Structures are given as structure tokens and as C-alpha cells.
Amino acid sequence: MIKMPTAYVLVKIDTGREEEIFKKIKGFPEVKKANVTYGMADIVIEIEFKNMEDLDNFLFSKLRKIPGVTETTSIISSKTIV
Which residue in 10, 30, 70, 82 is deepest, having the highest Cβ count within 10 Å? Predict the structure, then answer.
């Protein structure tokens, strides 16, 4: 079985909108896990994608269009060890 590539996206959002945005993010089919966090990001999400075009589409056409999302940082996994 071939596993689809995985990316982790750190999301910064406007204060007080955590629950609203968290609910929207959880509804995207690409999202495998989502966590509200403390620290440098407000929400960290794990997504799977088929190719870079799909990743771009998710980031630019879905995630960054959510009102209240102020910044994203993407980390693309090269290998899973466990």
C-alpha cells in the first residue's frame, strides 16, 4: 500500500476564533488530525495530499480563505519512522 504524502500545517488565527475555525478545519477531507495548541501556532493540522497541486489547492483555496486565519506554515514530511 502506498501512503499519500503528509504535511503538517501550523495555523495562526485571530484571538477568540479558535473553536469556530477549528470546526471548519475539521470538516475538510484532507485533514487527518487537528489540534488546538499553545505556543507558536494556535492550531496544528495533519493533512494528506496526492501531489503538490492538491497541497497548494488546500492551502490557498481552502485554509487561507477562512476568515480569521492570519498565517500558515507548512512542514512536508519526507518519511515516517514508527
Answer: 30
